[in-house]
Design goal:
Strand order of the largest sheet: 2-1-4-5-6-7-8
Number of domains: 2
Number of helices: 8
Radius of gyration: 22 Å
Distance between the termini: 41 Å
Largest sheet: 7 strands, antiparallel
């Protein structure tokens, strides 16, 4: 689970922006919070974070920043591994600094990610300039420990005379860095590839449970390989029926194109007049096609307790289907493994106290210098230092401009 994610100097985010998924001390929807093993020392976490704001405000950029961090850590691991990775792994996002001033392109892009596994909370920091690591650190806190002082696994700073310091766990594993250790390679990645250190492996493997889907991509492919595992296809069809999609079954066909390349085609099966008929998935509505890409990712995240990250979740979906999808993660009955959903949307029908907590609603927008900023509904206070109340219409007040992050009035 993600505790918090921060980014600085990445595309439109010049200053540090922090998406905090640690629950605020408010009472709404408290039954669905993701539990902490030690509530006296660790805050409970949110199952959902929803991003709203004008076009170009920074919603997609924030998700791209998270994808870029995943790419930096996992890219070399995937290339060196014979293991076939899941289809929702984004490894092509590059780090680009803020370019609309005279100095930011000379400064590093910095990421900070706090995340939890079953046993630990990790705090990872990575700073890059022109593709080279400037700073990097990984600290760990055991969730069942009496003391919650973070323990260093490693700390890397290019400006120091001795740039890399190793913690006890890595020293105990006799980690030796080569003289020509590449400055382009994160130490977390190198240690995961080169050594068997439980804490390092646990941290690196956590990144594999981030499932990233860009719903604006028209070339999305149905991940049919996922459904060769027992039970997954049945779960997918149950979800389709729950979303009121009248498809009885589907089948996969392998065909060869004119250039001798194998490709797979999905056919959906319908019942009409007591008979079964089939047609290519491409002939279905755009909303149904989107569900064929979206629901498999949800099943994978819910099954593994991972994090589903979806840009433009609302596109091509009816508002009720959009709400039903979000409830897969907010309902403890459908989310027993404590998965999370982070998404962007323009559909304000989801900006409701009946669906989301105030600390689950986030806004992004650019200022006069074209730099993006990020804040939550819970952060907002009026001139009397009063927060937005949970009994108001969030969507109406947002469209009235009370929360910022709305386009100019026509």
């Amino acid at each position: 689970m993600i505790c918090l994610f921060s980014v600085q100097n990445f595309k439109s985010f010049r200053e540090e922006a922090t998406l905090d998924l640690q629950a605020a001390d408010i009472k709404e929807h408290s039954v669905r919070l993701l539990p902490s093993p030690n509530r006296d020392k660790f805050r409970t976490l949110l199952p959902v974070a929803a991003l709203y704001g004008p076009n170009g405000g920074g919603k997609s950029v924030l998700l791209e920043a998270l994808a870029a961090l995943v790419s930096e850590v996992l890219g070399p691991i995937v290339l060196a591994s014979a293991e076939k990775m899941h289809p929702y792994m984004s490894l092509e996002q590059e780090c680009e600094p803020f370019l609309l001033d005279g100095t930011s392109k000379e400064r590093p892009t910095a990421f900070q990610l706090h995340f939890r596994t079953d046993q630990s909370e990790y705090r990872y920091h990575l700073s890059l300039l022109d593709g080279r690591v400037q700073q990097e650190s990984l600290y760990r806190v055991q969730l069942d420990a009496k003391r919650i002082t973070p323990v260093m696994l490693f700390d890397r700073d290019l400006s120091r005379e001795i740039p890399i310091r190793l913690g006890t766990a890595m020293k105990r594993s006799c980690v030796v860095l080569p003289r020509d250790f590449k400055s382009t390679l994160p130490l977390l990645t190198y240690a995961s590839l080169s050594y068997s250190i439980p804490e390092i492996d646990e941290a690196a493997d956590w990144f594999k449970r981030l499932y990233i889907l860009d719903c604006s991509d028209d070339d999305m492919a149905f991940p049919s390989a996922l459904f060769r595992a027992p039970g997954r296809k049945a779960a997918f069809l149950r979800l389709l029926h729950g979303f009121d999609v009248p498809i009885q079954e589907y089948r996969e066909s392998e065909d060869w194109d004119g250039e001798g390349r194998l490709y797979r085609r999905i056919y959906t099966i319908h019942e009409a007049g007591g008979k079964l008929y089939e047609m290519p998935l491409s002939c279905e509505s755009q909303g149904t096609i989107k569900l064929f890409h979206l629901l498999p990712m949800a099943i994978l995240a819910l099954e593994t307790g991972g994090v589903a990250i979806v840009d433009e979740l609302d596109t091509k979906l009816h508002p009720r289907l959009l709400m039903a999808f979000i409830r897969l993660f907010t309902n403890p009955d459908t989310n027993p493994n404590h998965a999370q959903l982070v998404f962007s949307s323009q559909d304000v029908s989801t900006m409701s106290s009946g669906l989301l907590r105030r600390d689950e609603i986030w806004f992004t927008a650019r200022d006069d210098e074209q730099a993006s900023h990020l804040w939550s509904l819970y952060d907002l206070q009026d001139v009397h230092s009063e927060r937005v109340q949970s009994n108001v219409s969030y969507a109406q007040q947002y469209l009235e401009g009370r929360y910022g992050a709305v386009p100019c009035q026509p």
